[in-house]
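no rush on this but wanted to send it before i forget. what follows is a protein written twice so to speak, once as letters and once as structure tokens for the fold. mainly i need to know what kind of three dimensional shape the backbone takes. thanks a lot i owe you, the record is right below.
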Amino acid sequence: MDLPFIAATLTRRGLLTPGRPIRVVSQLNALRRWGWSLAGELRQAAARDPGRVAVVDERGATMTYQELLERSERLARSLRSHLGVQAGDRVGVLCRNHHGLIEAIVAAMLLGADAVLVNTGLSAAQLGTVAEEQGLRVLVHDGEFTERVLGLPAEVHRVDERRHEELIAAAVPGEQLQPPERDGRTIVLTSGTTGAPKGARRPTPHGFGPLVSIIDRIPLHARNTTMIAAPIFHTWGYAALQVSFALRATVVLHRRFDPAATLTALVAQRCDAMFAVPVMLQRLMEVEPPLPRPPLKVVAVSGSALPGNLATAFMDRYGDVLYNLYGSTEVSWASIAGPRELRAAPTTAGRPPHGTRLAILDENGRPVRDGEVGRIFVGNEMLFEGYTSGVGRESRDGLLDTGDLGRLDADGLLFVDGRADDMIVSGGENVFPSEVEDLIARLPQVREVAVIGVPDPDYGQRLAAFLALRAGETLDPDAVREYVRRYLARFSVPRDVVFVKYLPRNATGKVLSRELRRYFD
């Protein structure tokens, strides 16, 4: 990435403002010695703005960058001296959004250990599988998960919140940490909506490039106050934390997402930015907006597609502040849509940011024409390093297969049609469930909808639609079918229309298709 672009972007976002010389030197030295991992970003923020509030959570904990760094260092020293954690080990983190999660991740990295971010929605059996496959030495977990972790192997040290504080208090005083012999990696578990989660090794940035790619298109500024509503164990929530530390922002965290509490906090903490997943926006739209409105300038979402007209409805209420990032655990980011693009095309995934290449390829690896659906391939400097099982992803000319299907319009806007394995063939016709979902989501009676493919003895597969209606609303299955028939081809009409109270989702808001398919087992 070219230096003039980096310098111009950092200047626009307030990162090149003058500061006390000794602090600027300390900041740069922290990055030189500790790199661009989360631990390095925390160190540089503490060096430049030690007294700035780093984290505020709903339980009243308020910590400055210096306090957060000191607690993380003390935890790291105790993990090494009391539990034997060293470079190359793996530390699992099973926590909701609060300062303890950050301390555990940073502590692992300070020792050169890998931090495995564990989805809080995993069952006890899945946790056991993760502990075995990832070779966990330690699992740091919230107290609410104590019963769920009881079945883990005895050799996995379990650190609950009380033990977490005891380890911080028991740290050997005066002992200085040095950069480890190897960089600690972050391992993110894939969502596992259709099967068991896989561990994906995230690369450590090697400079300002990844940060600049994001903040060039999403106008986040130095010293923002940012609510991270997306779970930090998810790629998007973790990226939000990395960006926030790089910007020396004040981060507001809640352990659980509650729409009313979130709106209250946005106003009370005067948050000018929020990171969320699309289903959270849907929940916020179901709550009466507060007066005064939150002073939001940026609402950045990722993790799943924006359904129907959610983008325009949200901006009508909260202003043109919405930014939609399309990406994945494997490719980090592929494209970003800003308010102007979402106004013009509410379901678009936008355009690739600076330094990212995107191609739509057919089955033979050849580019398709504008408007044609093909496989989405992405290239940037933050492509994942492979799954911890040793398996990789198909790549072509430095571009990685996302596993999604999509198309580019004549203006270069990307539209994602869904997972390649979600597309069904019904009676010889290719059908994309996401197209039907977007249409049904526009019905005013519908709160949320999911459309999936199910086996059919005559056509091979057919569509089934699952609808959760708004309170007090009713719909007739035939009316839903007729509505779809009016706008789409006959083979896109769902023959099964099932009404449910709510859609089963994982902790990141993605619909669990395997749970819906049980209706037809």
